[in-house]
Amino acid sequence: MQITPLGDSALTLTLGDSINESTHRQVQAAWRSLSAEPLPGVSEVTPAYTTVTVFFDTARVVAAGAPEDEVVEWLTARVRERLKNPPKSAKAGKPRTVEIPVCYGGEYGPDLGRVAAQARLFPEEVVKRHSAAKYLVHLIGFAPGFPYLGGLPKELITPRHAKPRMAVPPGTVAIGGEQTGIYPQVTPGGWNLIGCTSLKLFRPDLNPPVLLQAGDEVRFKAITPEEFKRLEEEAR
Length: 236
Description:
InterPro entries: CT_C_D (IPR003833), Cyclophilin-like_dom_sf (IPR029000), PxpB (IPR010016). It is an enzyme of class 3 (hydrolase). GO terms for molecular function: 5-oxoprolinase (ATP-hydrolyzing) activity; ATP binding. Residues 1-212 form the Carboxyltransferase domain. By secondary structure, the protein is α+β, with helices and mostly antiparallel strands. It folds into two domains: 2-84, Gyrase A, domain 2 (2-Layer Sandwich), CATH 3.30.1360.40; 97-235, Beta Barrel (Cyclophilin), CATH 2.40.100.10. The chain has helices at 21-36, 58-63, 71-84, 112-119, 123-132, 225-235; strands at residues 2-5, 10-14, 42-47, 51-56, 97-104, 135-140, 147-150, 165-168, 172-176, 179-182, 187-189, 192-196, 217-222. The strands form three sheets. A seven-stranded mixed β-barrel has the order 5-12-9-10-7-6-13. A hairpin with a 6-residue loop joins strand 6 and strand 7. It is elongated. The mean pLDDT is 95.
């Protein structure tokens, strides 16, 4: 693990050099250890694919005992000590498994044919393989509630569009390179649209406001257009 300064008010912990489940587990463990009981002066701890960034208030760190000219060194030492001896409250719970019903193809997934052509498979086989895989939520980003999911079968890897769409409908399931994801709201997007779910991934009126969180496991369930419309009505 490397710890390096990020500007004058943050530290970045690098825990790996590639996106995989092992690195993800290390990132989540470090994030839990540092956020369960924040160190003096730490204002935020943010996990990403292979890193954890620790944001701090220099004045508060100095007030906690750090020499003014050694704030980074002082806090780095305490970060390392915390990771060696994490608090009991940082213990990982059992991962959630969330099933996402998806209507693939047609008006709900206009790029299913493009993915099929790239993979040299029939569209039905793309649906079968995409919905059979188990996915891991690496992080939430880009837009509130947007999950970046690892675990896409290699044969379904498809390049992003050179020219993004200006508006992707909410609930759209898409493939972008080696990842799959779900657009939580209307946003521009360059990923390949293969289906849609009626589930709401972002609800600002709820706590937490997002359906999925980093560390969750996701499985997709293929449904018919009729089932999609029924679920859509029930969700209103």
